[in-house]
Write a structure and sequence with these properties.
The structure holds two protein chains of two kinds. By secondary structure, chain A is mainly α. Helix content of chain A is about 70%, strand content about 0%. Chain B folds into two domains: about 5-50, no CATH class; about 75-315, MetI-like (MetI-like fold), CATH 1.10.3720. In chain B, helix 4 crosses helix 8 (about 175-200) and helix 8 packs across helix 10 (about 220-245). Classes of the chains: A mainly alpha, B mainly alpha.
Chain lengths: ~290, ~325
């Protein structure tokens, strides 16, 4: 339809032009309506979190609170049974650690698979590739047992290290490394650089866009992960935000203001990252087709 | 070591492959990842099989006994403790796949066509429609749980304003499934939309120009040009949507707690992932939970391969 309009534009008679303008206005109206539908739940979350409790069940719904109140935030922040500040810090530690470690180990591995020849390379790489088709749920029980056996339940490491086994980052970076012209490395080698120096000083700087994309995707996935931390972290003060929100829900069945305040606290960091880097994130989804 | 690359490159050209000097360097590069891969992907692949042959109670590891195929037999024996809840929950998951995949393909396709119109500001709208995808299921589940509450919930408030029936969304059928599906579609459709939009943008413009010259209307061009060319991508979208919906866990876990209860036992919106979670981590029957996850994983692999074969036929 769009392209049809564009084709007609070329033969622009006044009548056709007017039709295009009307179509354009209708398109905008539709897009804005849809945008509202997408944003309303989030606005409702924010609005609920900023209302005093008495206004939550008002007979007439107020999208903009009559009186703004931080009561819900103060209550959850002050409640030792739901240490949400601690959960925030836990989430931050876990997500940053996963992101940093994945960038390091995956870029090292990806470089070897992209550029070096060694016995067993195709076998090992094929093995990694084949696991992409395996559903993650197969690994829940055995990995839980492994983490239990090495005494990492209720430990940050229990959440962090299974995430490092993923193969997506290795593939993603390998593909990018393969697009870098070899001349640069060869020149560096002639200048006397060893493999590691070449990797560190030539390849990594050139791969900054791919590394940044992988970092953002990894951070978001780790920050949002629900099921694995739910299994591994059981102590209230060790939880990350997503299983923490579940605790919040279980603890106070009708305190919707406080629950939405918790949800806002968990959502704001990813929304900020998204607003700042949306072009990156959207394009990485378009080009790689991964599901976090 | 210093000149491993040059030596190798030279070697490729001048020396027969067999006499290439062996180097440990590549293995050092892949080793850190390979260790984690081995421990958390390779080992559990086999350890899972082993555990599935045990009657393993996480709280009483001393009572572990080897039961061979008993866990598998239980799953396929009508009347066993596991039989009815497992198959009911698997059927619940299949129902959800049926409810959720069509909207997860059709709505993103519509949005992608809309966003493919080249007008100023469309990147903004693309970003808005995609935004919910970056949220955690915990946030999404909690938010829609509140929106669908019968008392004080947003949806029933407006239904009441319009003097329409106000269903108990989260505790009656079919409304519980409607609520879960709406939350899921809102949360994840942006992902499919982005992939479809990227595919739309790769369709060469000449095709539409040729169509316009031949006098085709907009909808004719959509059905005769756009859809046939999108077919491989649509198949991909269908496959990943089926797999994603098969993994349904957080939405019912947080919104309906698996309910409402069914007369024959179990919950009407308890998907198989929640059942596995309960079996393994609430009843601590990890062997039985491992078996369930293998059976479900096998089904998912078969579905993926089936779809993959469809792809190949098209190519």
């Amino acid at each position: 339809m769009a392209t049809a309009a564009r084709v007609q534009e070329k033969a622009a008679t006044p009548r056709v032009e007017r039709r295009i303008t009307v179509a354009r206005i209708l398109t905008y109206v539709l897009m804005i309506l849809l945008a509202l539908i997408f944003m309303l739940p989030l606005l409702w979350m924010l609005s609920t979190s900023l209302k005093p409790k008495a206004q939550l069940f008002a007979p007439v719904i107020q999208w903009i609170p009559q009186t703004f109140s931080l009561e819900s935030y103060q209550k959850i922040l002050a409640n030792p049974a739901v240490p949400i500040g601690r959960w925030f810090v836990n989430s931050l530690i876990v997500s940053l650690a996963v992101t940093a470690l994945i960038l390091i180990i995956d870029s090292l591995a990806a470089y070897a698979y992209a550029r070096m020849e060694f016995p067993g390379k195709n076998l090992i790489f094929g093995l990694l590739l084949s696991t992409l088709f395996l559903p993650g749920m197969m690994f829940l029980v055995p990995n839980f047992l492994t983490i239990n056996n090495i005494h990492l339940l209720n430990n940050y490491l229990g959440v962090i290290i299974p995430g490092l086994a993923g193969v997506f980052g290795v593939f993603f970076l390998r593909q990018f490394f393969q697009t870098i012209p070899k001349d640069l490395e060869e020149a560096a080698v002639i200048d006397g650089a060893n493999v590691f120096q070449t990797f560190l000083m030539i390849i990594l700087p050139l791969a900054k866009p791919a590394l940044a994309t992988l970092a953002v995707i990894t951070f978001l996935a780790s920050w949002n992960d629900f099921l694995w931390p739910l299994l591994v972290l059981q102590q209230a003060d060790m939880l990350t935000l997503p299983p923490g929100l579940r605790t919040l829900q279980g603890a106070y069945t009708s305190e919707y203001g406080q629950m939405m305040a918790g949800a806002v606290i968990a959502a704001v960091p990813v929304l900020i990252i998204y607003i700042a880097l949306q072009r990156y994130i959207v394009q990485s989804v378009a080009s790689t087709g991964i599901k976090g | 070591m210093a000149t491993a690359i040059t030596r190798q490159n030279v070697a490729v050209r001048t020396v027969p492959a067999g006499r290439r000097k062996f180097s440990w360097v590549p293995y050092l590069f892949i080793l850190p990842h390979l260790i984690f891969f081995g421990v958390f992907v390779g080992y559990p692949f086999f350890n899972g099989l082993f555990v599935s042959a045990l009657n393993y109670n996480f709280l009483r590891p001393d009572r572990t006994e080897f039961v061979g195929l008993q866990n598998y037999v239980n799953l396929f024996t009508a009347g066993s403790v596991q039989f009815q809840p497992f198959w009911t929950s698997l059927w619940n998951t299949v129902q959800f796949v049926i409810y959720s995949v069509p909207p997860l393909v059709i709505i993103p396709l519509g949005l992608a066509v809309l966003l493919n119109i080249k007008i100023p500001g469309r990147n903004f709208f693309r970003a808005v429609y995609f935004a919910p995808w970056v949220l955690s299921i915990a946030v999404v589940g909690l938010l829609w749980w509140w929106i669908f509450q019968s008392q004080g919930g947003l949806i029933n408030y407006y239904l009441g304003q319009m003097h329409l029936a106000q269903p108990q969304w989260l505790s009656t059928l079919p409304w519980a499934w409607v609520a879960i599906t709406v939350a899921t579609v809102w949360w994840t459709l942006g992902f499919n939309m982005i992939i479809l939009l990227a595919a739309l943008q790769e369709i060469p413009n000449d095709l539409y120009e040729a169509g316009a010259i031949d006098g085709a209307t907009g909808s004719q061009m959509f059905w005769r040009i756009t859809l046939p060319l999108l077919r491989p991508v649509l198949l991909f979208i269908v496959t990943i949507s089926i797999i994603a919906s098969f993994n349904l866990f957080g939405q019912p876990f947080l919104m309906t707690n698996g309910g409402p209860a069914l007369p024959e036992g179990g919950g009407a919106t308890t998907p198989v992932m929640v059942q596995i979670y309960r079996e393994g981590f609430e009843h601590y029957s990890l062997g039985s939970a491992a078996v369930m996850s293998f059976v479900v994983a096998l089904i998912m692999i078969v579905v993926s391969i089936g779809n993959f074969k469809l792809f190949q036929q098209r190519d």
